[in-house]
Amino acid sequence: MEENEVLVSVKNVSKKFSLDLKSSLKYGALDIIKSSFGVPIKKTLRPKEFWAVKDVSFELRRGECIGLIGHNGAGKSTLLKVLNGLYNPDEGEIIMKGKVGALIELGAGFNPILSGRENIYNNASILGFTKKEVEAKIDSIIAFSEIEEFIDMPVQNYSSGMKVRLGFAVASHLEPDVLIIDEVLAVGDLGFTLKCFNKIDKLLPHTAVIFVSHSMPMVSRICNEIILMDHGKVSYQGKDTGKGIDAYYDMFKTDENSEIVFDTKEVKLLTSHIVDNTIRNSCYDVQWNTDFLLEIELENINLRKMPHFSFVVYDKEQRAIAEFIPADQDITVDYTPGQRKKFQFKIKNFNFSKGSYTITITLQKNFTTEVFYKEHRIININITGSDQMWTPILLDSTQISN
Hints:
With about 400 residues, this protein is of the alpha/beta class. The chain has two domains: about 5-10 and about 55-250, P-loop containing nucleotide triphosphate hydrolases (Rossmann fold, 3-Layer(aba) Sandwich), CATH 3.40.50.300; about 260-385, abc- transporter (atp binding component) like domain (Coagulation Factor XIII, Chain A, domain 1, Distorted Sandwich). Helix content is about 25%, strand content about 35%. The protein is built from eight helices and 19 strands. The strands form four sheets. Strands 10, 12, 13, 15, 16, 18 and 19 form a seven-stranded mixed beta sheet that branches. Strands 5-6-7-3-8-9 form a six-stranded mixed beta sheet, with helices on both faces. A three-stranded antiparallel beta sheet has the order 2-1-4. Strand 12 (about 280) and strand 13 form a beta hairpin. The two termini are about 40 Å apart. The model has no long low-confidence stretch (mean pLDDT about 90). Keywords: ATP-binding, Nucleotide-binding, Transport.
């Protein structure tokens, strides 16, 4: 096959379902009767039906990876099942060339009463591989899965992680022309996930990959095109992965208030704001790579000494990505109970890429022990003025030579 040929062609594909079993059985029976007599089946929705996937189109060539992203229930997994032939589309056309390997659901394709070794042969035969071809790869498959001592145990006794290891090992080592991967990689541990991505890197030049994940770092790691789905429809489609990922994050924006997660009633945060910055939609706009002044006001309820301050920055996926601890803190200074006092902290070169971030404050006896108070989202920040990026940090750099 040609290196740059189209392996997957999806044209205006739609799939509908019924909201309950009774109507599903009723419509299914009617459709069978109509098709038996050559009566055309209406493509419009009937009562209690909805479009799980509506009018999706794309082409995927060898060496390309398309990422399907969206909220739970957006239609991603349904689309994958249509692509893999588990569901027939109600509308549209799908053309897939070559051998297709799929990891759509945990343990899908495995016979639970057969051993891992027997399931390897079963899966390979479904993909069209001969026993001789499998025998040439089986040692490598078992070694990659890291479940050698359990390979002859029935799959029904495997943990979720073991099923993922075996499923990915089989799908990747048989080197399919099209590889379909759902969220299952999120089940594995970090070490195995890294192995999987290294394997995908080796496969990708000769394979077309369809990848579904809620982890945007994973998506941005391998995908060169994004389809963002929302209630079955395509909300964004294009090769600007950063734009697609930002559109995904925008779907989950909320105006959540701060949340106290630890409070010993010794000290309390009264106010927090960024000095001389306008707050808009509960967020402060901050220019990329600039300084700003964070001011807080505390009420000392019962402390005798000054608390230790620390602040943690969280990204759009609520991962802690940075921490700033004000220098020269003197936690031996006397602190009068009942006193209200304001503190200012200068944050220098806030060089996070365009997007939304939150700040959490922790007050404690010292750097590592005895937390007095902790509150999430005391400050919401929207970084402006930089190029659209999916990475959390955009470092300041210049070219000094050709």
